[in-house]
Structure formats: C-alpha cells, structure tokens
Specification:
By secondary structure, the protein is of the alpha/beta class. The chain has a single domain, classed as Rossmann fold. The radius of gyration is 15 Å and the shape is globular. It contains 7 helices and 5 strands. The longest helix has 17 residues.
C-alpha cells in the first residue's frame, strides 16, 4: 500500500463540479482508491480547501452551495481522518521559511509545510495539480492517471 498526501487543489476540484480540473480529480481519486492508496489529509490542506471554496462560491455568486460543499468535504474526510500538523509549525517554522526562500517564493508557506511533513512522514507521493512541488527533491507529484501508473510500477 502506498501512502499519499492529497493537496487542496485536488480536493477542491473533486468537490466543485464546476472546477476546470473536476473530471481529472474524480478520475484520479477513483483510481487511487482502486489502487488501494492510503490517502492522507493534512489540517493545513483542509484549511486551504475550505478557504478557497468559500471565496470561490462568493466570487461566482454561488453562496447557496457553500453549506453543501462543506458537508460533502466532511463526509469525504471526517475529522478523525485528518492528520493534524499545525502543532508542528513552531518546530518546523525555520525549515518552512528556508524552503520558501530556496524556491524564491514559488512554494508558499502551506506548500512548504506540506513538503516538509511529507518528508517527516516518509510520504513520497503527493496528489496535486500544483507544479511548484516538482522542485521538491523528496516528492513525486501525481497529477494524472499516467503518473499513478508510474507510481504503481515503482512500488
């Protein structure tokens, strides 16, 4: 079984049927489940997901959908399945800033935190549409089904 962290952009696309990446996210999520991947969900990813969904529905005049999206998120990822990493931020703060700095700001604070938590948990794979993660040497980004097939061949 392969461990994999799921990034906010995959969750957002999975939940929001109007998202450009929705079909890709659904196909990827289904394939990961079929492959028996153990998907991990970090609190910082949930934070970002809720924030983006809230902003998106307000900006697009779909505020009536927000409660349903939150319910769907909570059904998909119950609180008991969240990996709580925010308590580690004080310990990792300097390393997060170093990683943000070394990427010349391409990686934001949360993305650097995600990358460092992956390293600490020995999680090599990240389901994400964010190419900024490609510069992180200890991560392999899974964006589409061909990436998943390559991951399975290595496992």
């Amino acid at each position: 079984m392969v461990d994999l962290i799921v990034d906010a952009n995959v969750l957002i696309a999975l939940l929001d049927g109007a998202d450009t990446w929705h079909r890709t996210a659904v196909a990827l999520y289904d394939a990961l489940q079929d492959a028996g991947a153990r998907m991990l969900y970090l609190d910082c990813v949930i934070n970002e997901t809720i924030g983006v969904l809230g902003r998106r529905v307000r900006e697009r005049g779909r505020i009536s959908q927000f409660a349903e999206l939150l319910s769907h998120l909570n059904t998909l990822i119950p609180e008991t399945q969240i990996t709580w990493v925010y308590p580690e931020v004080p310990r990792l703060y300097a390393d997060v800033l170093d990683l943000v700095r070394s990427s010349d700001g391409e990686l934001n604070f949360h993305d650097a935190l995600i990358a460092l938590i992956c390293r600490e948990l020995s999680v090599r794979y990240l389901a994400s549409f964010d190419r900024d993660f490609d510069q992180v040497s200890w991560l392999e980004r899974i964006e589409e089904l061909t990436d998943l097939q390559a991951m399975q061949e290595k496992a």
